[in-house]
């Protein structure tokens, strides 16, 4: 029985869940027994026990003995084992001809090769398990009315997710707020164009309705707030996974070539064995057992027993060389494909880099100032510069702080790495909470990779201000003047 499905059915009937996109926001929050402030910690723990981990069910791992025996499940191993069996039969028929040693050698080669491959894959699997927590994505949620970052595995129905550009969505959720939110659905539906989201149901089919976001998709631009309605196997991607089942692994090009070679060698060996057996019977008229042992010897002699360990050893050496370069090979058969590669594409954030940025300098009034992060000071020619001696610095810092969607709280930070580092810079000189509360945000145009800028409109005393940040060429296009040394100068 699916514990998660049972728990979800107890909270929301299945037919209601299929049409949850058509219900008003207030009704959805009531059905999920949550609010726009999110769940409290006690409720999260209770729901985690009921719904389980937010992860697709994995196929149970086979016992180690079975994993080892599966290493013999290939055509070459079968050929070597048949050769060993025939050699042993030859030893029984005509003892003292050395067939027993050949049988032991062939059997030993097969077992050693299987053991070597098994150990390589076993060590790789254990290493991958240890990396699991490092590779688990994190999401920003509202719990107890506060923003916090949690592992996606710990999401539960009723959680309030905060979405921003670049976020990977890890649960099915109903939108309750959005600002120009576009989501890449290609992994789920195959649609190549990012889909603009809405707060209204646009289809009777939950998968096509624009007020829903789904696990396995990616936020391309904009921001949004959504309440989680399904996790793990109960998501749309979970339903697809159950429907498709396990796809059989295809043979690699090298495996196909080796299998073809083995078939050809086997046919030739059997043909020669039968030929010499018939010649011995009808031409030389040797005893039947002598001819049979000779035929077995011919067949075994044509078995390329050195090919399998040579291929395995070569791939293993390549795996060890890659391990020295901090590249883990989970399956050594995959190494052969690397010989055909010209370019490897990788997401560098958090992989090749630490996803940790810092402000080193700012440029203002046609002057650059170094930021000494440890001292929380701005320096010019190694001399400390007081903020009141830098015209426009407070407005500059206000832009960095208020045109920003990241959050800093009690040593924790969530949001875009660039925005986090900008806010940390401002925090070195200003009271963030005071500035944010004195200039509340009224409206926002979120940053997107297409527009390459972000705008916020904030209340400032009795009027409003618009703060803009983005790519330099885009920002300059929208400006008629620039501020320097307490003067507005025309561009």
Would you write up a description of this structure?
The structure is a single chain. The protein is an alpha+beta fold. The chain folds into three domains: 43-50 and 155-243, Calcium-transporting ATPase, cytoplasmic transduction domain A; 55-138 and 248-344, Calcium-transporting ATPase, transmembrane domain (Up-down Bundle); 361-490, Calcium-transporting ATPase, cytoplasmic domain N. 43% of the residues lie in helices and 20% in strands. The protein is built from 17 helices and 18 strands. The strands form five sheets. Strands 1, 2, 3, 4, 5, 6 and 7 form a seven-stranded antiparallel sheet that branches. Strand 1 and strand 2 (146-151) form a beta hairpin. Helix 6 runs antiparallel to helix 7, helix 7 (99-135) packs parallel to helix 12 (307-324) and helix 10 (253-284) runs antiparallel to helix 11. It is elongated.
Strand and helix map with partners:
Blueprint: H1 3-11, H2 14-18, H3 25-31, H4 41-51, H5 64-69, H6 75-93, H7 99-135, E1 138-143, E2 146-151, E3 160-163, E4 172-184, H8 186-189, E5 195-196, E6 212-213, E7 218-230, H9 236-244, H10 253-284, H11 288-301, H12 307-324, H13 335-338, E8 361-364, E9 367-372, E10 377-380, E11 383-385, H14 393-402, E12 407-409, E13 412-414, H15 417-427, H16 432-438, E14 441-445, E15 453-460, E16 463-470, H17 472-477, E17 481-484, E18 487-490
Antiparallel strand pairs: 1-2, 1-3, 3-7, 4-5, 4-6, 4-7, 8-9, 9-10, 10-11, 12-13, 14-15, 15-16, 17-18
Helix pairs in contact: 6-7, 6-11, 7-12, 10-11, 14-15
